[in-house]
Give the backbone structure.
Amino acid sequence: MDRKVLFAIATLLLGQAQTVSGRENLVRVTTSKDVRAGELANVYLNWLEKPPNSLTAFYTSCSHPNDTTPDDIIGQYTVRGQHPQRLAWAVPSNAQSDNCVFIYNQDENHHNEGSSKVIGKSKPVHIKRKVQKRSAAEMGIPLLQDFDSLGTWFDGVASIKQKTDYKGGVSSGASPKNASIAIVGGGISGLATALMLDSVGVHNWEIIEASGRVGGRFRTKYMADTQEWAEMGPMRLPHSVTYKEDNETLLYTDHQLTFQMAEILNTMNKNASRWRIDFIPWIQHHPNELIAQGTRRHADGRIPTRGEIEANPDLNDPPSMTSAEYEDSEKKMDNILKDTKTLKSIQKDVWRAHKTAMDEGLDDWSEQAMMRHVFKASENVTDQIWTDSDYDVFWDELHHNSNLGLDGSKDSLGETHWLCIDGGFSRLSDAFLPHIKDRLTLNRQIRKLESVQGPNDTSRTRLSWYPSVSNRTFESKEYDYTIMAVPFTMTRFMDLPTFSSVLGRAISEAGLRFKSACKVALLFSERFWEKGERPIFGGYSKPPSDPVGALYYPVYGLNESRPGLIMHYRGGDWSDRFVSFSDEEHVQTVLDSIVSLHGEQARDLYTGDYERLCWLQDEHTATAWCRPDVEQHKLYIPAYHKTEHNTIFIGEHTAPTHAWVSSSLHSSVRGSVQLLLELGLVDEAKELNKRWMGRWIKL
Ligand SMILES: Cc1cc2nc3c(=O)[nH]c(=O)nc-3n(C[C@H](O)[C@H](O)[C@H](O)COP(=O)(O)OP(=O)(O)OC[C@H]3O[C@@H](n4cnc5c(N)ncnc54)[C@H](O)[C@@H]3O)c2cc1C
């Protein structure tokens, strides 16, 4: 049903000769304080008598309510036993100021009586026009809260308009803020959603978490009763970047939400030392990192350092391919993947950059297909360039190049400055506990989601779980809505209702693609790598072993006389293969690699304490992060923004960026706003959008 048809039905039922008489006091009608053309607003209904079964809302001339056009209709609603408190109003961009909202009784019997159908009327509504904001870039201070993002990914106005067109409109129940909400998954996206809903007065949620702790992929492990912690999950956050060509320093705006979240939690926890989150610098690269892959040895057999290779590029192995065709294809790829303007646009406004990449068709081609069929490179050259990197989708590699790719080396366009959390990332997820622990259920793994009939012809969700591994009789609980904050690698184990085609395929095992990673941390009684002629403080070395790949020296306790750890971190295909290793074999392989760089002293100083986690083996994750295939962003992301079976999917995998904490947090803003709009709570959705830097959401 489009707006014109809706209008025709509404006016037919009302009759064209409505007269406004004295029965305007059945419901008191007010609106949001701030009503802006082209945005969403709430119409508040305060019922003085029992509402009719069906009603219509118009915004039209206060004195001539008969002169209505299809644009004036706010919606047509069936009252299902409850007194609707609010209506969601997509205010047309050309709406006249100082008209009134009229509520009409649309009951047939009422209509037949021929009495007045106007049962409520607002005072004239002042409609504000949009002030064109200066963009973050123009202001030179890219604070997310000041965003005027064109790259809107979640269009709340369109969503309400669509619902008005197809369903008649969005109205709330009698007490929308009391709707019961299950948040499945206590990772950062679930935790943040809970806090965001609380912040706008929606408190009736429950976090249901499969494991015995919150934090999900946040996995800080303190080793052997020492103060050394190993980050088996996230360990660093890009904060700012300085470009070489113009010395410009930019903040990573998409990561600001992570820093903001920590600040908010610190304030909520009154800076109590138990919960406090402090950021400290993370050193991503150090000049004395040892680079044993793709390099020659010094004359005395020593492995060269990063600094030495920078000073003498002859220490690099000669490139395996140098043909003109190769150089030309590489240059064409770099024009897309390493363009300063594009990388800066990602740092300034990742949503707009993402949208541009989608609009430019970068999600339509794999990197291989582009090289072969557009750049006309041979199979051999294509394969050489493709296997040199870990990526095959342009957007993913672009995002990588905008942070990890800016490593300060000679060939790089700039250098990223990194931060990490003093005491570990789990401090960030633990800091939520004082605010959520009264509504948290641990050790409950959801295995089934159903759409069930609620009271008054509404629908709800029912969640089921097994009480234990041996007891396979489901226990269940019903909620008005479910926010599913677990990766699809886990929802794939759930019995789910049938979702619409695209969403169903994204969830299915043939759909959204995921990747894995392994980390192994070894504890040493001394920080031997920080001593000697070429001390290493932070960064990571590359041992000769290709499978081991990278050995990190975490920055905590730099240059202090305390134990320390070296950490093996490997993604890509290797992490899938390492799953086949026993703990012992994996740890010994890593130790051998450390010895190959630092000599036998490493073996002597190894304490025997280790942590190992291959994320494919993690019971409640079974992935490290999402790595969409070609066209999956363009096709799937809009599908997450539609609520089906009263269920909203959030989490790192549903955002325009992946594998970052900020990806999860932005999905929480979007999911919370989506839920509030479902409940008709437009004012709260707007407040949340503003408070949590979700200006990329159009409301
Ligand atoms: C190895 C690694 C390194 C990383 N490095 C960084 C980094 O340096 N910087 C950065 O910013 N990000 C990094 N990330 C990414 C970041 O950790 C994630 O994006 C983020 O933590 C994901 O949060 P989430 O809430 O979306 O999902 P999760 O953390 O996976 O949360 C999902 C939750 O759902 C629970 N669950 C699963 N199934 C069920 C079920 N059936 N019923 C109930 N509960 C269930 C899980 O136990 C979990 O608690 C890294 C991730 C990994 C794995």
